[in-house]
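Protein 1 of 2
SEQ + STRUCT:
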Amino acid sequence: MKNPIKALINAITERTQKTLMRIRELGGNSVSFSSFGRDAYQSELVRACIRTLADQTAKAAPISNDDKLQRMLKLRPNAYMNGKDFLYKVRTLYELRNTVFILVMRDDGGKATGMYPIPCASYEGYQDEYGNIYVHFRMREGSEYWFAWEDLIVLRKDYAESDIGGEDNSPILNTLELINTSNESIQNAVKSTANLRGILKSTKSMLDPKDTKRIKEEFVKDYMDPTSGDGFGALDATTEFQQVNISPTITGWTTMREFRENVYRYYGVNDTILMGTATPEQMQTFYELRIEPFLVALSLEMTSKVFTQREISFGNFITFDSSTTQFMSMSDKLNLQAVVDRGAMSINEWREVLNLPAIEGGDTFVRRLDTAPVANADTQEDENE
């Protein structure tokens, strides 16, 4: 069976046999991009931050006037992922590398049939003599691929110097290194305090090394082993035990907390967000600052790359919606009843907020008998007169 991915790669590779020149930025330097992130992802703090961002992003639901496309994005964007996994991986790559590429697979008619996030190790942009842009990807295992710019959905942040991708995550490396060094200092301190506990001093002169070793071993066996005695020790006048107190210097809690806050600020999260203890107001702010901008960018870029300009002019679109009502407390959700009987929400819309299934007739808007549109109220008043 013919692999559609390989077929597309071969087709694009043939198209890139034209004369290519490396894309040059405004400064005139050749640009070669190498993604950063593999080391940072080994940090438990970085992984916790990115996991939270990815989890919240993955809650978004794709919406499109093309029902088939919407179903594909929701259920199975590609052979390896469902809709949630797709958004999770896209956001993870976006945070790790500040740039994420998504390959759009198409059928013979140009319709999108799948989307694959590209976990590349590095990438370079090229332009042929006709102005067409291609991106050359290198994977970790050594394979290389070429894809046309119009087949790539590209999301970027810290977008400054390059035309192709965002800047790397080098600004946070120093803080991560300080955190790692601090953790190692604590680990070494624990080890050092468990090593040398004291010195046995004998008044006997010129002891044979074997006798010195024997005295130490007997003392350790009799008094230092927690399973061998009652906690009391006895020494004769020829032996003296001097306890050694080791107090290694380690990073203070205040400094460690500031290191953590630096990472939190970089990724736009905090402890309450990570631990799920944030208030609805705090979650709303988090959504507006860290989730909504990403979904807006993804919606715009996906619409632009999936549809032609003509299709867009006829109203075709893709958007990702994540309802902010998910951050409301249960009491606030129940209080929405006040807007249901005023016609602001249907019963089924309210039930959806409560994570309840729709009911028959629940899409009809209802209104309390003591409320009416202004025009109707004037008519009723005239009739009463």
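Protein 2 of 2
SEQ + STRUCT:
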Amino acid sequence: MDDRERGLAFLFAITLPPIMVWFLVAKFTYGIDASTAKYLIPGDGANLLI
């Protein structure tokens, strides 16, 4: 693993958990389901989280 890959892994590790926590809090607090989540996440990302 070179420095570039290590940097990308670090960036992924510090950005993904807050996004997942935000999504889970929104899901349980506001009742976001698969039909509304697809409008919140650009692209096909909603299918990956649900």
